[in-house]
Amino acid sequence: MNDAGFDSPExxxxxxxxxxxxxxxxxxxxxxxxxxxxxxxxxxxxxLYEVHSRCRNGRWFDDGSSNGxxxxxxxxxxxxxxxxxxxxxPEGASAVRMEFQxxxxxxxxxxxxxxxxxxxxxxxxxxxxRLLAILTESGWKDYDELDVWRRLLHGxxx
Length: 158
Fold this sequence. Notes:
The chain is mainly beta.
């Protein structure tokens, strides 16, 4: 751990990861909080890793990490946190559409990965973010239509 902190949340997230094998796939910042999605695998075998960071006195520090989407408490309030949803996307995808609590949002795909972040929300009990569609070269494809590529992407047979 670096006690002096870092200039950016991306630099804080990359601490301990060799740049030769790891890079930032996506990052979102909201005030003094950030979520950075790292790509730690190869193009053919993607492995994504989520790092939360917090800014104190103008410096960014690691504030927890995970190898899966989910809810992460921020600050002193145990009821509020950061909710994330991310995954690898198929080759050629340029955006992803999700729905959470009745609100539909879109985020770009970068380096075959997408990242959605909801800040200062309670941990969901029943309703979690839901993938609706992915934008490909031929237009938006409803998630239900994507079952074939998801199976192929994860090496499963049709």
